[in-house]
Amino acid sequence: MCSVFDVNDDAGIERFLEDYGVHNPQRMLFGRRRRPTQQVSIVTTRHGRPEVENAIWHLYLERDGENWKPHRKYWSINSNWQKLDKRPEYHNSRCLVPATAWVESLHGKNPVEFSYGQPFFFCGLYKTWGDILSCSIITISAHPKTRKYHDKSLPMIAPADKHFVEQWLKGGHDTALFEPYLQPHIEYAGQPLAVQPLVRATSTEYAGDRVILG
Q: Where are the coiled-coil regions (predicted)?
């Protein structure tokens, strides 16, 4: 489960978005250790072109008076890949979540930070609730080299491929293009995944050396 991630404003996010033709980068919400139920930035094509919007990181919401809040009965920060075909959002409202790193732990212990040293997109889903957006990050099976750090899952990361990004955001029932990416991969844009131990999951203080998962 991906439950903490970074959007570091020193990592070239705006140039990264520009490379993919994403509009309104000024809307980006930056910060390290973004947490569930917070507002995070996503990329959608709801208005006909890829653009940054902001959403609550929790797919299912419920009414709270005149407002919306995360649903108490349905913890939905992640969406498991095995159930995607049953989700209308997979066909109609896919999104991308810009990030620079994410944090995992093994049964709540020994947290680590994963990164590629450059920005990337998580693949996600979104829903609309009136004028409010919500989102989740898709998770796939853990990779053999990441299981010692988190044995349950790995976030689905969009390849550094403009055609993939365009098709992902486009929507539609033909999802055959995405099937190879529902299997765990740990290389991104020719770069291996790096992992570094943390003092605790929400801390930015490291507890050990960075290791490359080559």
A: none
